[in-house]
Design a protein that fits this description.
mainly alpha; three-stranded antiparallel β-sheet; single chain; 12 strands; 19 helices
Length: about 475
């Protein structure tokens, strides 16, 4: 029996024809903004209907794979270990998407009585009806049902269904305020609001569950880096997100005596890379704050080992204590620039001399440099002084002094990759100046930079 194949085959041919004609005749490119918006909405309507069929298909696969005997399951018959693997292979999605499809199918599918073979009501009947009508897709189904699902068993099943029905009305544009059909993000807010209203005592159980699952795990080091995975408590995630937002919001531009046509340069980093760099800066601030527990009587300090020859010639490898993978001498030089160097002389493995720590800017110098520079001196960065490292403009290894006339503020990213991103820095009678890369400023002009309010005000009054 091949019930759905012919209509699905016809639908596939029609869809393929539309896609091919749209590409060949450039329908979307030729459309006005109003027409393009209507076309996008129409495609979304079709997608939700296809997702309804997809969820029912996944739900049926789940039903046939719930047999207690493994050999009687559909997944076993088709050579898959579980439903996720089968859905991945047949629909060509990743494991995360396959899991989302299963959760949505669980919330919207109708079960079948093992005794009579009759269909039973779905857990959320109005959600299923809206799905069949093409009002809700996968995102909409999950947005409504998942916040309400977390209230079980403290909130009755009937109360959860009633709340879901009210939120579905918002999805249809039939809510009490007469608003247009709500998107998935807004539906989730409505559902969360109902979940909190129905389960006012549920925050504590949820928090206890979150506390049990909290974790941060560093994986095994690889040549590409060290993987991190885990689960943050909501308030910890909110604090980290606040740090990301503060660090990733550009605020800085050239001082007024520069070319007003120049704006902040483009940042080619992805959002994930910028968040990594903000996290790295936060770790540096925490380690140098003096508020963390000590290790061996000292603040937690990243110890990097490298031979003097390799460091001076920029070749070979260095090694960071606590990580199995080697690091480059460029990375070691970046770490040392903002930290200290202690020379240890050895011969045949025996330590014969230990030098004093040197070349670290003290707190008085740092405070003065912060007042002068305001924050990271690279235009468009916006990192405040407290999050910056102090860079030796003339490297200490070639005679550069640890003096305010030779130190500037750079954020972790610009300090780490200064040699690769094209920005050049010099000191002009104790004042930092930068030259932008040629792709950003073809004039290749040295320009004084700062975000210090006092220096900026002085520059304005001079003009």
């Amino acid at each position: 029996m091949d019930l759905p194949r012919p209509p699905l085959r016809d639908l596939h041919k029609q869809a393929a024809s539309v896609v091919a004609r749209s590409d060949a005749e450039r329908w979307l490119e030729r459309a006005t903004e109003t027409e393009l918006a209507q076309q996008l909405a129409a495609v979304g309507d079709l997608q939700r209907l296809v997702e309804a069929l997809l969820l029912d298909a996944v739900g049926e696969v789940m039903r046939r794979s719930e047999q207690p005997v493994r050999d009687e399951r559909m997944t076993s018959h088709l050579g898959c270990r579980d439903v996720t693997e089968l859905v991945e292979k047949l629909t060509r999605v990743d494991a995360r998407s396959a899991a989302r499809l299963q959760r949505a199918a669980t919330a919207a599918r109708q079960t079948v009585s093992e005794i009579t073979g009759e269909r039973c009501a779905a857990p959320y009947p109005e959600v299923r009806e809206a799905m069949i009508d093409g009002v809700l897709g996968v995102d909409g189904v999950l947005a409504i049902t998942e916040p309400l699902r977390t209230t079980a068993p403290r909130v009755s099943e009937s109360a959860r269904r009633d709340a879901a029905a009210i939120v579905v009305a918002e999805a249809r544009g039939e809510g009490p305020d007469g608003a247009p059909p709500a998107c998935a993000a807004l539906l989730k807010i409505h559902a969360q609001t109902w979940a909190i209203a129905l389960d006012q005592d549920g925050a504590e159980p949820r928090e206890r569950a979150a506390e049990r699952k909290r974790s941060v795990v560093l994986g095994t080091a690889t040549p590409h880096g060290v993987p991190v995975h885990g689960m943050l408590l909501p308030d910890v995630a909110a604090q980290l997100q606040t740090i990301f937002d503060a660090q990733l919001s550009p605020k800085v531009a050239f001082v007024p005596d520069g070319d007003p046509s120049l704006h902040a340069p483009r940042d080619d980093r992805s959002r994930a890379q910028r968040q990594h760099d903000a996290f790295a800066a936060a770790l540096g601030v925490a380690a140098s704050s003096g508020l963390l527990p000590t290790i061996g009587g000292h603040a937690p300090t990243l110890v990097v080992q490298v031979t003097e020859e390799n460091l001076s010639k920029g070749k070979g490898y260095a090694h960071a204590q606590g990580c199995d993978e080697p690091i480059s001498t460029d990375v070691a030089r970046h770490i040392a620039c903002a930290g200290t160097i202690q020379r240890v002389t050895s011969r045949d493995g025996r330590i014969i001399a230990i030098g004093n720590e040197e070349r670290v800017f003290n707190r008085h110098q740092r405070r003065a440099i912060a007042l002068r520079d305001g924050g990271c001196i690279i235009p468009g960065c916006g990192a405040p002084a407290a999050w910056c490292e102090i860079h030796h403009v003339v490297e200490h290894a070639v005679g550069g002094p640890t003096h305010t006339d030779n130190g500037v503020l750079l954020c972790w990213f610009h300090h780490r990759f200064l040699d690769k991103i094209g920005w050049r820095i010099r000191m002009n009678r104790g004042v930092p100046e930068v030259m932008a890369p040629i792709w950003f400023d073809t004039s290749m002009t040295w320009r004084a930079v700062t975000t210090s309010p006092v220096r900026l005000r002085s520059a304005v009054t001079r003009t």
